[in-house]
Amino acid sequence: GGAVIVGKTRLSEFAYSPGSNNAHYGPTANPWDAGRDTGGSSSGSGAAVAAGLVYAALGTDTGGSIRIPSAFCGIVGLKPSHGRTSLHGGVTLSWSLDHLGPMTRTVGDGADLLDLLAGPDPRDPRTLPAAPPLPAQVPAGLRIGVLGDDGSGISLATDRVLAAWRQGLAALAAAGADLVPVDVPWLELARHVNGAMLTLEAFTLHAERLRTGWNDVGEFPRRRLMQALLHGPSTYVRASQARAMLREQARALFGRIDLLSTPTMPFGAPALGVPDGTRFTSPFNLLGLPALSLPVGLTDEGLPIGLQLIGPPGAEATVLAAGASLEASGIWYT
To answer: FRET label pair with 108: which of 16, 57, 79, 116, CA 20 to 30 Å apart?
Structure first.
């Protein structure tokens, strides 16, 4: 598409960590605070875009690996619908959960990059037809679900993150969106199912590597891959059945709302090299839904806070339009 490729970016080993920890190359410092982590697994992409080294970067996302570094680095990250972009040429972590998408400083840049990336690829049978064009503005009366109960039994986020998230939602309401409180308790099950399927698929792909090069694999991914052996022979089938059930739950949810919003992460960037969780990101890998993270404020320590918008399958255009509307409100700059 005419891009000038200036280099490769660092990431966690096998893209199998929500942090930048890497036994071979070390962690990736956050441009906002070198003592903080970028998040993972697309850590170098997040840092390069945030630092202004590149116009845009690619990220892959199996449990949150585009959206986590985007939230921690104060940039825009889009995980498209599963199959919207080709993964040909990438090292697979999980065949059915991997996604590839743009990481940029603005929503418009992300939309432009998605337009370039999206579409069928005969080299990747998972790919779908090209995404529809981005609408000029958010449709009037867009219904945005505001997450209440996520099934975890704990607070959604820190007070500061909640305040910034709600401020972002208020800006969307001011632009014409209707905010609809929703409880989605099945998100907790979706997290566990995503984790089980990811472990089993990743082990299948990397089992030979573990057999022949055990000492070449870092301890962190090696431990995660070996967890697959704790599962019984029926786990993958049960997880697949649970995913089908959860897709029906999501279909019913998006019959009542157009988009769902959550904080991207419950807090700001952790200490350098410390991986964290995928609480609000991994359920939407399991379901293959488009999800956008964009910055909406800063923590008390001056670290970026991300707001996440999730749509039904194929709704990248609506997700991006809502993100562009929020970005145009100037909330990130206040």
So the answer is: 16
CA atoms within 13 Å, Cβ hemisphere of 257: 23
Predicted TM-score (pTM) above 0.90:
yes
Q: How far is CA 159 from CA 185, 229, 264, 297, in A?
A: 21, 39, 14, 13
Quick one: tokens of 202?
């990743």
Q: What is the 3-state secondary structure (H, E, C) of the chain?
A: CCCCCCCCCCCCHHHCCCCCCCCCCCCCEECCEEEEECCCCCHHHHHHHHCCCCCEEEEEECCCCCHHHHHHHCCEEEECCCCCECCCCCCCCCCCCCEEEEEECCHHHHHHHHHHHECCECCECCCCCCCCCCCCCCCCCCEEEEECCCCCCCCCCCHHHHHHHHHHHHHHHHCCCEEEEECCCCHHHHHHHHHHHHHHHHHHHHHHHHHHCHHHCCHHHHHHHHHHHHCCCCHHHHHHHHHHHHHHHHHHHHHHCCEEEEECCCCCCCECCCCCCCCCCCHHHHCCCCEEEEEEEECCCCCEEEEEEECCCCCHHHHHHHHHHHHHCCHHHC
Distance, CA of 285 to CA of 281 (rounded, Å) = 7
Asked if omega into 240 is within 30° of 0 (cis), the reply is: no
Tokens read off for 212: 């022949």
Q: With both helix axes pointing from N to C terminus, report the angle between 187-212 and 219-226 in degrees, rounded to the nearest 10.
A: 110
Please give the Cα distance from 263 to 67 (Å, whole number). Answer: 11
Lowest-pLDDT range of 21-35, 122-136, 198-212, 222-236: 122-136
Q: Which two tokens stand for residue 257?
A: 């709302």
**171, 218, 268 from 271: Cα distances, Å:** 31, 20, 10
257-306 tens-digit pLDDT: 999 999 999 999 999 999 999 999 999 999 999 999 999 999 999 999 99
pLDDT confidence of residue 334: 45
Strand partners, 160: none
Given a contact cutoff of 8 angstroms between Cβ atoms, the answer to whether 161 and 305 are in contact is yes
Tokens of 57: 């970067």
